[in-house]
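Long-time lurker, first post. I've been practising inverse folding by hand and with some scripts of my own, and I keep getting stuck on stretches where the structure tokens seem ambiguous. Below is the full token string for one chain I'm working on. Before anyone asks, I'm not after the true native sequence, just a reasonable design that respects the backbone. If someone could post their per-position residues I'd love to compare against what I wrote down in my notebook.
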């Protein structure tokens, strides 16, 4: 199998690339290397002589039709897993334009090329955010979509466009909607790595609103295992929810992080809430589980290991935090800290 992993230099894509080469698949990564893409995330693959020969990297944009078609024509790709996306909700609130380009137009370019080059399997990595807030119960795949921020709305566009290519052209697509991932190599703008690294630096943890929003956490290794599983066991044209079964209030997750690092709770600062903040995400994963897959990593264990990874890999995140991130952090948080609730 030769897999094209788009967005393979990001958080989840790099874990998936590592998993697939270690199992002997040939992997081609196409990544634009935006602020979130990082070749260091793939270093263990490229520096190992066994895995490096199974691996090829292209720097480029999934919106670039010519480049995408070139890769499909020369690399003998049979499967595409599309992780490439603008992924941070807060950045989409600041400015949505790149989200529309990559998360919608980029998906269109990949789907068109896949149709032309008769790709055998196309996995569109969507998100549980497309359902919007779960006021009660848990969302099934058949529930209506109700995205409420520019990120989730653009992901919903890509999600439904992928479905349209199945319904209209019978392109063999599968759509996955996973819950919040955590684990090593996650860009420190996201809640878990931001709170771990801020705590390690004795900086304030900016908790939005009352902190009683909840998220269902899945370890990135479990998420990648489920995608691998669906490549062979999933049915074309279907959507699969992928949850971790670990619903937690943000404030409780923040407290676990502080306890683990032996830091005081006073580091938590309640700040002005995110605009249009989805209060709760919750997934019904019976459809995936009925095929015989379930997550293995318990949240408290996975979080402990993740904290240890950030403690032992400070050069990885300190380099990120001193670059473009510093400017973003100021813009996102400076006014929030000054008008704390
Ligand atoms: P990330 O932000 O860490 O990585 C995204 C990667 O995509 C980066 O390497 C970036 O350089 C690349 N990229 C961005 N625009 C591109 C373009 N136009 N062309 C080529 N490459 C481009 O994201 P992540 O957290 O690893 O998320 C991966 C996918 O999983 C996304 O589609 C996201 O919507 C989805 N997802 C994420 C989560 C989560 O909790 N992180 C949960 C569910 C679904
Ligand atoms: O649910 C899947 C989605 O999870 C993915 O599709 C997205 O790509 C990914 O970014 C994530 O979205 P969230 O908005 O849930 O993740 P984030 O890490 O930004 O925030 C998690 C929760 O923590 C959310 O309720 C907002 C809150 N939060 C976040 C940040 C960055 C804070 O309280 N303070 C913060 O500084």
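-- Answer (accepted) --
I ran through it position by position. Result:
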């Amino acid at each position: 199998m030769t897999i094209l992993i788009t967005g393979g230099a990001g958080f989840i894509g790099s874990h998936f690339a590592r998993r697939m080469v270690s199992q002997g698949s040939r992997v081609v990564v196409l990544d634009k290397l935006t602020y979130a893409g990082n070749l260091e995330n793939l270093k263990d693959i490229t520096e190992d002589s066994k895995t490096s020969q199974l691996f090829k990297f292209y720097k480029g944009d999934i919106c670039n039709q010519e480049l995408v078609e070139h890769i499909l024509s020369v690399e003998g790709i049979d499967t595409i897993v599309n992780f490439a996306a603008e992924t941070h909700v807060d950045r989409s609130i600041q400015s949505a334009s790149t989200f529309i380009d990559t998360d919608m137009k980029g998906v269109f370019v990949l789907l068109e090329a896949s149709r032309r080059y008769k790709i055998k399997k196309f996995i569109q990595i969507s998100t549980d955010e497309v359902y919007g807030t779960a006021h009660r119960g848990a969302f099934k795949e058949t529930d209506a979509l109700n995205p409420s921020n520019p990120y989730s709305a653009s992901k919903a566009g890509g999600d439904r466009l992928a479905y349209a290519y199945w319904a209209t052209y019978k392109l063999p697509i599968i759509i996955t909607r996973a819950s919040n991932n955590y684990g090593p190599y996650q860009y420190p703008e996201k809640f878990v790595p931001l709170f771990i690294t801020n705590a390690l630096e004795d900086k304030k943890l900016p908790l939005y609103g009352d902190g009683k929003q909840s998220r269902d956490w899945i370890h990135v290794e479990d998420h990648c295992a489920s995608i691998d599983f669906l490549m062979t066991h999933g049915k074309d044209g279907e959507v699969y929810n992928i949850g971790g079964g670990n619903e937690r209030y943000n404030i409780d997750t923040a407290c676990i992080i502080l306890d683990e690092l032996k830091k005081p709770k006073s580091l938590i600062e309640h700040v002005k809430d995110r605009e249009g903040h989805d209060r709760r995400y919750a997934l019904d994963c019976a459809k995936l589980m009925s095929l015989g897959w379930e997550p293995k990593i318990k949240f408290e264990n996975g979080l402990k290991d993740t904290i240890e990874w950030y403690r032992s890999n400070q050069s990885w995140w300190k380099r990120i935090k001193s670059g473009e991130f510093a400017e973003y952090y100021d813009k996102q948080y400076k006014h929030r800290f000054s008008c704390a609730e």
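A couple of notes from the structure itself: The pocket of DAU (ligand 2) is lined by residues 87-89, 127-129, 179-180, 190-191, 194, 206-208, 213, 215, 250, 274, 281 (CB under 6 Å). The two ends are 53 Å apart (CA to CA). Happy to go over any region you disagree with.
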